[in-house]
Amino acid sequence: MNKPEKIDAPLIITSHANADFDSLAAMVAASRLYPGAVLVFPGSQEKNLRNFYIQSAMYMFNFRNVREIDLSTVRTLVLVDTRQQGRVPHVKQAFDNPNLEIHTYDHHPDNDDDVVHSKGKVIDWGSTATILTHEIMGMGITLKPDEATIIGLGIFEDTGSFTFNSTKPEDFQAAAWLLTQGMDTTVISDLITRDLSAEQVSLLNALLESAKTHDIRGVPVVTAEISTEEYVSDFALLAHKIIDMENIRVLFALGRMHDRVHLVARSRSPEVDVGQICASFGGGGHAAAASASIKDRTMSQVKDELFALLNTLIRPQHGVQDLMSRPAIVIEREMTTAEAAEIMSRYGLKAAPIVDMETGKFIGVLEHQIADKAVGHGLSETPATDYMMRASASVSPDTNLYEIIEIVLGQGQRLVPVIDKGHIVGVVTRTDLINLLVDEPARIPESLMPERSRERNIRILLNERLPKELVGILHEAGELADELEQSIYAVGGFVRDILMDTPNLDLDLVVEGDGIAFAQALGDKLGGRVRAHRKFQTAVIVLPDGQHIDVATARLEYYEYPAALPTVELSSIKMDLYRRDFTINALAVQLNKSQFGRLVDFFGAQRDIKNRVIRVLHSLSFVEDPTRILRAIRFAQRYSFQIGGQTERLIKNALGLGMMEKLSGSRLFNEMCLIFEEKTALACLRQMRDLRLLSAIHPMLTLSPAQEELLEEIEKVLEWYRLLYLNHAPRSWIIYFMALANGAKDEETQSLAERFNLTPKQINDFLALRKQLNQSIYHYKMWKHRKGPLSQLCFQLDELPVEGVLFFMSKFKQEATRRDLSQYLTRLKDAELDISGRDLQLAGLPEGPAYGEILKKVRAAMLDGNASCREDQLNLVRKIIKDPAYIGLEPHPRTKKDSNSR
Questions:
Q1: Pairing of strands 250-257, 260-267
Q2: Where is the CBS domain (predicted)?
């Protein structure tokens, strides 16, 4: 029997696996906001919900099983009651679709696995159904009673019938409005009030007998556990029953079922956020109700980690005031960088807070290492505030330990000021925290260890998003590194673009060992050629198909003076990544066989990718290499990211110090060429203008309104030309330079070209092109006025390089002009004759200058439609040979003789 064909579904709505009533309710509610959407039910392990779904919802709404749908056709994916990609495995294939648009409606807290969405609402109300109900109310949509009942069911379920402390006023408002739409509370009561089977009563008794109350930081927490070889349906129902029967404030019910431990958590206490705890186990939920399914760990291991989390997350008995160092040594806002470095040296400080002494206001944190490096760069007299961490976190004396751990270990802030009534009363240093954690290591559960939280394995992504041949090269590199007892990593933009699912086959490898020797060995293995650069300890492998693989020795770069080329020292992968420009580029994935696919993220790149932020790695980055300013803008516009506040401030600081003037013209030109190759070049130029970077490069660069208008047309024309996939790839920088120099005198243009260190030949060619273009524009207008033949236009434009024609096309918006130029580029420019000089030779014409003239005459006839085939072209050649005066040629002596003899 043939399998039924799958249906196309450009717009689908779905929710997390093991769906609950809020998931179902949210899907139904979302269907009113997205008419025509296909609802994909993810499945549920709760019998009550499953039976209700099968008996009612399946027949009432447009629900489909995921197996019925061709997921490759999905263009818009609406996720409700979750944003975590890992919780929607049933639609995993859809995430690979190009240009997929994701909308999310969710009430759960943020998670590292959250997808990037373009539309939706994320609000911490009691249920997702509440969020969507308010959207429906705002749009004035009327519901049917059945719809109102199902949506209300989700609100009642996720708020515990409005008894959970996560319930918000908006939940009551939504339910009240649903009543006006015909919501049947009797139906909801029947569905939420569930009778227990005999098996469930037995298990409930076992849970009650095992229940124990633990006093954790003054909060009574109850744990209960059961073990069974079979899966227990409605395990969450048993947890509800225990809470109702025993009036428990916080409950963690654990059930070992077959090969995993199921955790159901409920909290009516504001001190305990069970969603945060279950998220640490890979689950989800919110502050009042959450769950997790934990594989490959015993019940004992889960309980140990649970108690470690509880001891960490519940407000500690001793506040920050017992942990902090006091009094705080501070740096005054008016101090120079040298003065700040001297104070930190005197007291042996790794960092210190900067304070406005008049107001007592905390401004930021300055690290000693950064201050010393700034002094070494000759920046002693710059204000200390220029290189501080401005967006530094601070805490109050009663802040819990978990927040301190997140700031110091998670965010990498070396020192955390403690502020009471607007004034710094002390600081918590990394050393203070380490000393406490040495005494009480259980305060940091495994899931909160900073190194562990930044590591994940992306082996699956490598296989899914890279060509098989490239994955094979990665494996070969890893196997070779194992043979040489070295560690090998793919690094930088290659890894970044895998995470962002952006095509990038430019492979960069870093070896913790001799990179050049490794490149030579890998090149031999892959049959490639190797070019080594011993000064920088790097090499390039050129494979037979032309692909390049860059190989470097893990290294730390330091700069002898601002804007200098780097000096290189051997180092580890962490230090190698630290030398890079931005966090999003400071990523590595290990290729050794035992660790293949292990993602290394020391600096929070995954978080910045998720938040769409360009963030620099250290405060002196732009001082040491001002070209990074241009790269920050290029990446921000390419990926539609924002430049972080601290990073933007450091850019302005570097420009204020005149760092762009110290940059060599060649390095500046290379970066500008890279910008001009981007599809967002104009956006880059606009941001450069707004940061006053253009004028810092050269006073002539103003980006006037007329230039902006011309550049907009250039972007459109270049995009059009790229889509033609013609053989002549234009040098974009020439076209953009033409626009930036449009209207300027030759002397000004030459000054700009010299700033970019163009060679004398490049400058002369550029100036000649400007002159040539003006002549071509004049000749075109005359041709148009005289209504000349196409061949005349073609021969005129042949004098211009393709960059000149594209600039010409950009400068004139008239449809007729663009049609003529488009016809030239797409049809006339590369039109070839069906004959050649060989045919002239066979026709009896001696070789000589006449060949070129004759072929040009034949080409003109072909372009004008008078000699479109080979026979017509040969006939024209015969006519020309018979009567050379036809093209103004004197007869060849041999031709005269032959003519007389006849």
A1: antiparallel
A2: 324-381, 388-446
Q: What is the pLDDT of residues 328-368, one digit of tens each?
A: 889 999 999 999 999 988 888 888 999 988 888 898 899 88
The model's confidence at residue 534, banded by pLDDT at 50, 70 and 90, is confident
Specify the CATH class of 198-313 in words: alpha beta
Q: What is the pLDDT of residues 265-313, one digit of tens each?
A: 988 877 788 888 988 888 877 788 888 888 878 888 899 889 888 887 7
Architecture of domain 612-694: Orthogonal Bundle (1.10)
Cβ atoms 42, 49 nearer than 8 A: no
* Residue for token pair 């013209």: 665
Report the C-alpha gap between 179 and 607 in whole angstroms.
42
Residues found in the chain? 902
The fold of 698-828 is: Methane Monooxygenase Hydroxylase; Chain G, domain 1 (1.20.58)
How is residue 862 annotated by DSSP?
Answer: H
C-alpha 469: how far from chain center: 25
| Domain boundaries of the chain, sorted by first residue | 7-192, 198-313, 320-453, 454-611, 612-694, 698-828, 837-901
Kindly report each contact of residues 200-207 with a partner whose C-beta sits within 8 Å and lies 24 or more positions away, as own/partner: 200/232, 200/234, 200/237, 200/238, 203/228, 203/232, 203/238, 204/238, 204/241, 204/242, 207/238, 207/242, 207/253
The answer to whether residue 2 scores a pLDDT higher than 60 is no
Residues 584 and 518: beta-carbon distance below 8 Å: no
- Return left, alpha or beta for 470; rule: phi > 0 is left, psi -120 to 50 is alpha, else beta: alpha
Asked: is 454-611 a CATH 3.30.460.10 domain? The reply is yes
When mean pLDDT is compared across 1-10, 60-69, 115-124, 822-831, the lowest value belongs to: 1-10
Note whether 659 and 622 are within 8 A (CB): yes
Tokens, residue 265: 């958590």
Predicted confidence (pLDDT) per residue in 470-529, tens digit: 999 999 999 999 999 899 999 999 999 999 988 888 999 999 888 999 999 999 999 999
**Predicted structure pTM score:** 0.57
Alpha-carbon distance of 148 to 175, in angstroms, equals: 9
CATH 1.10.3720.10 fits 320-453, yes or no: no
Q: Which helix (H) or strand (E) holds 134?
A: helix 128-138
Pairwise CA distance, residues 340 & 345, whole Å: 9
Rounded CA gap, 313 and 661, in Å? 51
What one-character DSSP code corresponds to residue 269?
-
Contact 377, 620 (CB under 8 A): yes
Least confident residue range of 127-131, 333-337, 653-657: 653-657
CA–CA dist 460, 254 (Å, integer): 31
CA distance 902 to 655: 84
**CATH 3.40.50.150 is the classification of domain 7-192:** no
Element (H or E) spanning 624, and its range? helix 621-624
Assigned token pair, 585: 């580029």
pLDDT range class, residue 62, cuts 50, 70, 90:
low
DSSP H helices in 181-294: 185-192, 198-210, 235-246, 274-280
In this prediction, residue 769 has a pLDDT band, given cuts at 50, 70 and 90, of: very high
Residues 428, 320 contacting (CB under 8 angstroms)? yes
Q: Which of 219 and 406 is assigned the larger pLDDT?
A: 219
User: Rounded CA gap, 472 and 870, in Å?
Assistant: 49
Q: How far is CA 877 from the centre of its chain?
A: 61
Q: Quote the pLDDT of residue 104.
A: 96
Going 302 to 308 to 309 to 311, the CA torsion angle's sign is: positive
Report how far residue 900's alpha carbon sits from residue 461's, in angstroms, rounded to the nearest whole number.
81
